[in-house]
Amino acid sequence: MKRKNKINSSLFYEKNLFSFYLKKRILSIKFILCILFSILISFSQSTFGRTISSQYLDEYIFWQKFLGVFSLTIFPLYFPIIISADIVSGEFSNKSAMIIYSMESRTKILSIKLLILIISIFILNLFYFLTFLIIAFIKTGIFVSIHIFLIGFLIIFIEFLFISSLTFMISALTRNTFVSFILPFFYISITSFLEYYELELLSYNSYKMKIISFFENFLFNEQIIFSIVKNISIIIFFGLPILIMLITFYSFKQLDIRID
Looking at the chain, which terminus has fewer C-beta neighbours within 10 angstroms, N or C? Predict the structure, then answer.
């Protein structure tokens, strides 16, 4: 009976903690501002004529222009950093970490934070893509093909997830919000330089471009081209965010989180 009460109490605490963090994250001013700016960026990229075909909308307007401009514009990638920079470090800054981590295991709390972060990134990405979809329909009367839309959404969502997981890891391991913001910001800013100096292996954007090229051939040219480079790129693109999360969980459990 005592064990059952303890389990129920733990579940009740977890639900309340999840609800608290979720409301705190999605109702924050910075999250709302990121949503508004993402809508504005999407709106600014949705300039095209009214008389276009469905194929033209899919292949050129959405895939090459919308996704292509996103790939060349690094500004939207700062949004995940803004959202997640203080996700762990914030509690160490306001000295509430010891109270929170004394009530539940680090793994559970990090899991809740990570789930909320994924939900936040999904919502941000959803607003960004739906804005384009709605404007395209209003102007042309046609929708982007659902399978093309979903693949494009997935690619950008995974990229957002990578940036978020990187920021999440730095936030958890350094417990410093400024460092958690500046390091991912710096990494995104030097991406073009990494590619210019032929250091593509260090650039996540280069893996994304290979994924876009792979799906472009598959969707529009009906060709599936596999190579060792593309296979490795697919594994790294989809697997790196997961690897970073696992490293974060393992490393954070080893830390002495006592506040001086």
Answer: C
Structural domain that includes position 190: 10-254
Tokens describing residue 258:
């006592």
CA distances from 26 to 33, 89, 142 (A): 10, 18, 31
> Which tokens hold the place of 106?
């680090």
d(CA 193, CA 120): 30
What is the reported pLDDT for 142? 86
Total domains, the chain: 1
Q: Phi and psi (nearest 5°) for 48?
A: -160, 165
pLDDT tens-digit series, residues 7-60: 555 566 677 778 888 888 888 899 999 899 888 888 777 666 666 788 888 888
Distances (CA, A) of 61 to 106, 108, 141, 150, 174: 45, 43, 14, 15, 42
Is there a contact between 184 and 81 (Cβ–Cβ < 8 Å)? Answer: yes
Residue 188 domain-assigned (yes or no) = yes
Residue type, 237: F
Is the CB of residue 231 less than 8 Å from the CB of residue 210?
no
76 DSSP 8-state letter? G
* pLDDT tens digits, 118-140: 999 999 999 989 998 888 888 88
| 171 contacts 180 by C-beta, under 8 angstroms | yes
> Which residue carries 């400024």 as its tokens?
178
Confidence of residue 260 (pLDDT cuts 50, 70, 90): very low
46 within domain boundaries: yes
Would you say residue 79 lies in a domain?
Answer: yes
